[in-house]
Model the fold of this input.
Amino acid sequence: MKTKNILITILGVSFFCVFINSRVLFIDNLIYEIYFEQLSGDQIKELIESKKEWSWMPYVFVFVLIIIRTSLITLCLNIGVFFYDTENKIKFIKLFRVTLIGEFVLVFVGFVRLIYFLFIKVEYTLQDIQQYYPLSYINFLDIKNIEPWLIYPMQTINLFEIAYFFVLVYGLHKLLKNKYSKSFEIVAVSYGAGLIIWLGLVMFLTLNLT
Done:
């Protein structure tokens, strides 16, 4: 499958997941439950109506997120290949394709979240939806006792992230035709460094904005 078709498929699946979540999960009811003691009925209705007017924003956010995330991770891999495997001159677009294939793992998270709230945790709050991450270390912790700036790093420790890592390793291994251990090293250093920088940035912003 061509890179363009992979990107279109990922975006299509992601948009479908956003659409289903907006239709199935009772976000409006949760908003009402949160604000019914703070705002009047009319104010809550205006808030919900305003949310509906901006209902296209999640699609834009998902599109921008996928493009930026895959581009930055591809850049990390590109730098890693440059320093660790100078004999191979790999085009950016080929590394981008590897990253896009790995993106299917992360897109699948959305479906797992949907299934979880539909069939397992049928009684949930808006905070549950925002903070739950499937197969993550944070699910074994009491979020109320966790500092806000630690929530995202804890969510990142999950089996999907590990699966994504190994998809990158395998894709790079097939692309470079080198030893699997060599591709593992390249991804561990390049993607690992990028992930640490990203986590540090998110933690810094959370600390300063909360």
Summary: Residues 3-209 form one domain. The CA atoms of residues 117 and 129 lie 8 Å apart. The radius of gyration is 20 Å. The chain has one domain: 3-209.
